[in-house]
Specification:
alpha+beta; 2 domains
Length: 305
């Protein structure tokens, strides 16, 4: 029993001191603790050379050192020779997971239905975010495709509308607005080709354009047409152009329908880095000149974001 305590004391002292040479007393004690099993000596051991003897002595010494180290680990619970380890009472720090930066809030797809305040309003048209600025009260959002002001049926001089295409822009016109016959072949995809088709829709009168303009810093085409009192069919059945990608029965897509009063349509076809954004203003026979000016002011205020 005393021998075990002596080995423990000596090995502990040896490990604490960090010595590299094994004292004779430690070696003797360790060897005494190792089990000895008689082995038959092989014949080739008698013919070892001095070089081999030295190598074996070194290997034996290394083995003893290893045994001492193992005994020390077993006796002292895994003492670290190379330095202090983490305290058992210390808990590992939790891994910090970086919190992703919040993404920018996308603009509203369209201003909510109802009265609109003076100021800037955001929306997304054909996947392109933009905003418009209103400088007067009285504008009301439909909540999905346009904003209106006044009541042309009551003869209000401020009556005006802006029709906006939130999903995607029209890509063709009707050769016969009353029969809903599409132009064949369809109008080309560029803003200039679409504007040319708008300017020649049957049953309409060209007021001005097509003209190259700039809207929100991007190139655009501007066309103004008017709808006469007599169009050959009820106004609600008079269709000008359509978006073939919009939901609905092809080729109607999203249909543009007119009111019963004579109206003037202001069309801006904007090329935003290859994406067509389509905006239409409308005034009526009862509208005063200020209504058309306010429509133009809203278009001039457009900022692409």
């Amino acid at each position: 029993m005393s021998t075990d305590r002596d080995v423990e004391r000596i090995v502990r002292s040896w490990l604490d001191e960090g010595v590299t040479a094994l004292p004779d007393r430690v070696l003797d004690l360790v060897l005494d603790q190792l089990p000895a099993t008689p082995q038959r000596r092989a014949g080739w051991l008698a013919r070892r050379s001095p070089l081999m003897n030295n190598a074996l002595r070194i290997a034996s010494a290394a083995a003893v050192v290893l045994v001492v180290a193992l005994i020390g680990i077993q006796l002292f619970g895994g003492t670290n020779v190379g330095g202090p380890g983490p305290s058992p009472s210390q808990s590992e720090s939790p891994t910090l997971v970086p919190t992703p930066s919040p993404s920018a809030t996308p603009p509203a797809a369209f201003p909510p239905a109802g009265a609109m305040e003076v100021g800037r309003h955001s929306m997304t048209l054909a996947g392109v975010p933009l905003s418009i600025e209103l400088t007067t009260t009285g504008w009301i959002s439909t909540g999905d495709f346009g904003i209106d002001k006044g009541n042309f049926q009551s003869g209000a001089p401020d009556s005006a509308s802006l029709l906006l295409w939130p999903a995607s822009a029209p890509d063709n016109v009707y050769a016969d607005p009353c029969a809903h016959t599409p132009l064949d072949p369809p109008a080309g995809p560029s803003a200039a080709e679409l504007a040319a088709a708008v300017s020649t829709v049957a049953g309409t009168e060209l007021v001005s354009g097509p003209a190259a303009v700039t809207v929100g810093g991007y190139p655009a085409q501007h066309v103004v047409i008017s709808i006469p009192d007599t169009i050959g069919c009820p106004a609600e059945q008079f269709y000008l152009w359509y978006d073939s990608d919009a939901p609905g029965d092809a080729p109607s897509g999203e249909l543009y329908r007119y009111a019963t009063a004579r109206s003037t349509v202001y069309t801006w076809i904007i090329d935003v880095d290859g994406t067509i954004v389509w905006i239409e203003g409308e005034t009526f026979a009862t509208s005063g000149p200020e209504a058309a000016q306010e429509v133009q002011q809203i278009v001039d205020s457009i900022q692409f974001e």
